[in-house]
Amino acid sequence: MSEGCPLSRSRDEEFAEEKREISERLSRIKHKLLVLSGKGGVGKTTVAVNLAAALTKQGLSVGLLDVDIHGPNVPKMLGIDGMRVDVGPDGRSLLPYQYNERLKVISIAFFLRERGDAVIWRGPLKIAAIKQFIKDVVWGELDYLVVDSPPGTGDEPLSVMQIIKELDGVVLVTTPQEVALLDVEKSLSFCRKMGVRVLGIIENMRFLLCPHCRGEVLLFGGGEKVREFAEKEGVPFLGAVPFEPAVVKASDEGVPVVLRLPESAAASNFYLIVHKIRESVEKMTSG
What we know:
The chain is α/β, with parallel strands linked by helices. It has helices at 11-26, 44-57, 74-77, 123-135, 155-163, 178-194, 225-233, 245-252, 257-260, 265-286, and strands spanning 29-37, 62-66, 86-87, 94-95, 97-98, 103-107, 142-148, 169-174, 198-209, 216-217, 237-243. The termini are far apart.
C-alpha cells in the first residue's frame, strides 16, 4: 500500500485519533458522575433520573447517559420510551434526545426496533456501544453528565471508568437490607481498585411512607445500617430517600418525582443529596 493510503494507518494511530475525539467531546462537560449499585432492584435508575432532573431544576445543563445495555429503563422513567435520535449533519455523530430545555438523554433503547427487543451482546459489543455514546454523541456544553450503569462490577461500569478518565466520582445506591450492603461493599472495593473517588452512598427505600397517615413503615428493618457502613468505610453518607407510592406512580407515568411532586419527602431528600454532591464535586474541582 502507498504511504498515503488510509488503509495503511496503524492501530496505534486509530487509537490515538479515537482518544483525541473522546477527549475533545468530554472537554465540554464540566462534571461527570457515575451512579452505581452492587445489587439490582435497589432503585438505582430512579435515583439517577431524579438526580439528573434535580440538577436541571437548579439551572444546570445535564446529560443523562444510560449504559444499561440489557435493561435500559431511563427512557421509560422519563416518558420517552419508543423515541428515536437523529444523526448529526456530518452523517456520523448522534444527537441526544432533548427531554427539556436543560436535559439531554441517550440510551440503547432509542435504537431498538421494538421496546421488548432483547439486546444479546457479549462484552466487546457493549464496550463499543458505550464508547460510541461518549465519543459520537453531540452532548455540547454540559454542567453535568450523569451515567446510569447496570448493577455490579462488569463491562459497563468498567468501560465508563476506563473511557472517562476525568470522572469526578461515583454515587453508590443501596437499600438497608444486609444482602444489598454486602453487594455495595463489593462495588466500593471495585471503585477503590480502579482508583475512582466515591462521592458517597445513598440509602434508597429507607422506609415506606404511608400515603394515608404519613407514618413510617420500616420495610427492611430499623437502625442506621447504611450510615454506619458509610462511616466505617470512610465515605460520605449522602442521605436517605423514603419509599413513597408517589415515586412509583411518577416513574410509571414517565415524570421524575422531583419534577412531578417537588414538595414530596422523596423529592426534598433528592434535592438535599444533589446539594451535597455539587458541594463535594465543585469544591474538589475548584481546589
